[in-house]
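User: Show me an example of a complex going from sequences to structure tokens.

Assistant: Sure. Here are the input components:
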Amino acid sequence: MFTCAVEAIIQRIGLTSVTVKRTGVLAVLVVTVIVATLTYSVLRNFDRQHTEMQEWQSRNLTRQVEWLWTSTRIIKHQQSLLHSVSNFVAGKPGYTKEKLMNDFDIYWSWYNSLDAFNGSYYELLMEDQHFDDSARSMIMELGESAAGLQQRAAEHLQRLEILLQSSNRADVAMTQAVLQETETVRTELTALGEGVVTLMRQSMQAQEWSAQRLTRRLSVAFMTITAVVSLCVLGLGFVILQKLESNIRLRGMNKKLTALYREQSHQAKLMEKLAFQDSLSGLLNREGYYRELRAVLDEGGTHGVVFLDLDMFKVVNNAAGRKAGDDLISHIGRALMNECREFCSSTAESVYVCSDCGCTPSRLGDDEFAFLCQNYSEARFEQFVDKLQRLFSPLVFTYKDRQFRLTASIGAYYFDAHAHTDDSVMERADAACIEAKRMGGNRARYYTDQNSLVSDRQSDMRIIEQIHSAFDHNRFVLYYQPIVALTETGYQPYSYELLIRMIGTDGTLVPPGAFLGVAERYGLMPKIDQWVVYEAFNWLEHNDIGSAGITCLNINLSGLSINDIDWIEQLVEEISVRSIDPARVCFEITESAALYHSGLSNLNVLKGAGVRLSLDDFGSGFSSFENLENLPVDQVKIDGAFVRDLDSNATHQEFIRAIAAMCHALDKFTVGEFVENEASVNKLRELGVHCAQGYYIAAPVSLETLKIAKSATEVA
Amino acid sequence: MRRKIAFKSIRLTPALLITLWFLPGLWLAAADQPVPQPSGPVILEITGNVAVKNFEHGVQLDYDMLTALEQVELEIDTPWTKPGTRFGGILTRELMEFVGASGEEIHAVAMDGYSITIPFDDLVNFDTVLALSMNGERMRLRTKGPSWVIYHPDDKPEAPDTVLNSRMIWQLKTLEVR
């Protein structure tokens, strides 16, 4: 209750814990001092009372002893006096009148003592505070009786004195009788004294009891005071401790809350990370990127975006498995982040946004990356794009002892935020990227508001739609272009290269350059290849080209198809199932596709199936004679660029001569493409090239028109 | 109000004892004037180790001889007298000097045969009075006269009452110094 009260007071005053402590200590001190003073005065009072009582009792006891002594002596001296009187009367020698009077005086002196004793005794009794009024009146009565008796005794003694002083012995003898009377008075007097002594004893007992009561009271008071002081101290201590404890508890709770808050914000960050971060690359994902982009667009200012597309990502995925693809993405993520950091020499910890330069590397799709370069100057943006391009020229990625050399097509766009939406910006960057890809990849293209990349991109989409539509409605057609073997004077049929053509929705023929590039960029080539191969196989089943002197049909296979082992195995299976001679089939592949990852082994699988292989476009790109030796090809088709102006370009002549010589040495058949005039034919012949192909010899024609009677061969 | 006695007691017992030791010599030197014989009835005899004598065993003193010495009057409470009683007489210490007493204790005998031994130290520690008068009147035999040894222990609260009371001998007859 006490602590409650103290707490209530503290709460009302609104003391802080420090003042509580100070006030508490001060209050305890004050209370302690007050209690100590009280205790001291009570003890002092008790001590005084006790001392007084002891003195009183001591005096009382002394008087009791003296009273007993006096009573005894008075009897003794009375007898002594009686003895003297009888001896004096008898006339015994030595018992003179003088001695008699001496004995009488001594006897009287004891009466005097008794008198004085009684007088002082009553006074002493009256001093005692323990007697009540009735007892006091009794004492008074006793005193009066005693005084009366004393008076009577004095009268007797005076009568005795007169008798004793008489010279007549008979008179003296009479004193004996008088003494007997005196004795009666004395007895009464001593009896009275006994009453007084009894009273005194009662008084002493009362005093003793009172002392005990006093002691009890004192001990109770002392205990109460001690308890109060202890409670005071304990209570205040408790309150202070509670305050301190609640303080500590508050602090602890605060700490916990802070920790909880931190954890929550950490969780929130984690959630944000999960929502806006790409788990594979560690970069921002599409949502994260667009969020940043929209924020930038809202702010205004000029910024740059980069759209980056890996050139051969599908190949990695197909060739080395999805795990390799994942590793590659993760690798690129790190590389891009480092690139950004390097570019601005940042030490920022942020995962997504480089806070120093405002560069935001992100992954938008499988192999598509984007950068948002906030508040870059145009020059700085161009530097950044250059740096990115250098990173991908090429980026070497090693997976399980296999090296992949990756290039990327980069589209960049520097824009004013006020004039754009997120979609319009990304569309332009994407268009620039597609342009770069169209130009063979491994390069960066800037979208400027003057060029028309966006509309190109839109036409790409239309073409893709057309391709899909062509598949659905069987609007692809096969053409063939003859390849002729050069003889000493002229040439004779050797083989046919199959070419695909697409009929547009409007019924007109779409040139291959218009849709094959798009199909390649958008990964549609394998599907086209499959269509061509099956169509060719069907045709071969119904036409015996051997009877017409044709060695084989050349079918083009794209890089993606070559690198897809599953598809290759299906192809081999198909060849074995069909009733066609594998030797009548020749697959044309490009050098880059053949050398790409699993390309070589897949070619060997094909070779094992008995088909012929032809290396297309040899001489362009990174062709090397070393590779030529290793490739399991039967034919080498020299790139058209060297053949087209063969008649006038001496360098090309020497180049073709070298190729022809080399192929001759390697026992490979050589073909010259894009032959456009007779001079070229002659030149090829002169240089030792085995075959020729081109518009001069024959333009591509629909395969449907070519029917070679099968029965004829069967007969043959 | 009780009148304080003029003599301040010296608490150093050995010093006083030494003084007392030399006193007889002093009194021997003064013995040229011998103590006169009592002219009235002898009320006190002092025997034992006393330096001066007027009879075979010591000094016999009558009332006049005692009242000739320096007198004091004190108000002393005793259990046998009414409060406020005043006693007149001589300090026992003075008396002992007068007779040239030396020793350790005094054996006192009363006329009624009561006797008690008073240590010499008491004379140093307390003011003890050989009372001759009570409330201005000469004490008779029936009022505990002719002389009464009374202790004045008011300023010596540590003294036990009962013991001192027993030493307050009245109707004194002889003092034997030994």
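The lines above are the inputs; the final block is the predicted structure for all two components together. Residues 462-704 of chain A form a domain with the TIM Barrel fold (CATH 3.20.20.450).
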